[in-house]
Amino acid sequence: MAVRPDTPEYALDLSEAERMRYREMAKRARVQEGERWQRYGVVPGARIADVGCGPGAVLVALAEVVGPNGSVTGVEPNATARAAALEEIRSSGLDNATVVAGDGTATTLDPGTYDVVMIRHVLFHVGDAVQAVLAHAVTLLRPGGHVYTVDVDLTGRRLSVSDADFDEQAQRYVEFQRDRGNNVDIGPKLGPLLAEAGLELRDHEGTIQKVPGEFLRLGGPMVAARHEMLAAGAITEDDARRYDAATQRVAATPNAALFVSQYIAVGRKG
Ligand SMILES: C[S@@+](CC[C@H](N)C(=O)[O-])C[C@H]1O[C@@H](n2cnc3c(N)ncnc32)[C@H](O)[C@@H]1O
């Protein structure tokens, strides 16, 4: 997903497969990060802002953790993603979560009232507004609250099997994102960025995330960006067909997996 909110050229792929992929990622985040969430304030009764909540899968997971005495407010500039997030909340049956329209640089949320501001896979998309998003997040926190960021380094990915077309697809995707000003290698920079925003850096870790074949078959960011890449002339229809075939081929190869570097950084407001 890229930042072209609510503009005609912005085609967010939120097919059922893509929403399923978001739910799987949220499930994984909860398992892998549950203790970290708790350490930094995602606990029953907490008040959380989820900036750039997308289709809301993590937002719902957070709302389940904070429970009926807590609340989660998603902020999302893209109308399609907002509608998906509202539907995700509705079908979860939770009544402690909501989504509002807004940009991470200037939300309309109450300043100084949040225990945690979650910013997951968003700073990748905001170009040179990274510090503006973080500075705004700091204003939303109460003293002692945490900004919790997660992002990737797309230049650090590895495929477990050899497939020249798949590699070409991944390379072209990274170049496309970099050319349009996205922060393709922001993950390892998150720690210093939080410190520059005036927070006390409490945590900065990197992990390799495994994306198994069955996940690749669901599509993912490379497929979600296909339409935009075609529209921008970054790939041809022939390339797209070749990349689709490569994705299905890799997904069907026993033990195929993509390994992607992901980083978490957390800063505390003094
Ligand atoms: C890859 S999705 C991540 C969704 C969710 N945080 C998650 O981890 O599942 C990135 C989201 O950031 C949103 N976004 C992009 N630019 C933004 C901005 N300036 N402020 C807030 N959200 C933004 C996009 O609309 C998109 O929904």
Question: Could you explain how this protein is built, in words?
Answer:
By secondary structure, the protein is of the alpha/beta class. The protein has a domain at 16-152 and 182-210 and 262-268: 3-Layer(aba) Sandwich (Rossmann fold), CATH 3.40.50. The protein is 42% helix and 25% strand. The chain contains 10 helices and 7 strands. Residues 1, 3, 5, 22, 51-54, 57-58, 75-78, 81, 103-104, 120-122, 125-126 line the site of S-adenosylmethionine.
Rg (CA only): 18 Å
CATH fold-type name of the domain at 16-152 and 182-210 and 262-268: Rossmann fold
What is the number of E strands? Answer: 7
> What's the order of the H and E elements?
HEHEHEEHEHHEHHHHE
Question: For the residues shown, what is the average pLDDT?
Answer: 93
The fraction of residues in strands falls at 15-25%
The number of helical segments is 10
Do you know the CATH architecture of the domain at 16-152 and 182-210 and 262-268? 3-Layer(aba) Sandwich
Choose one word for the global shape. globular
Structural class comes to alpha/beta
- Low-pLDDT stretches are 1-11
Q: Could you give a short account of the major beta sheet?
A: 7 strands, mixed
Hetero ligands: S-adenosylmethionine
Q: Alpha-carbon distance between the termini?
A: 33 Å
CATH class of the domain at 16-152 and 182-210 and 262-268, please? Alpha Beta
Superfamily at the CATH H level of the domain at 16-152 and 182-210 and 262-268?
A: Vaccinia Virus protein VP39
- Could you give the order of strands across the largest sheet? 3-2-1-4-5-7-6
Helix content: 40-55%
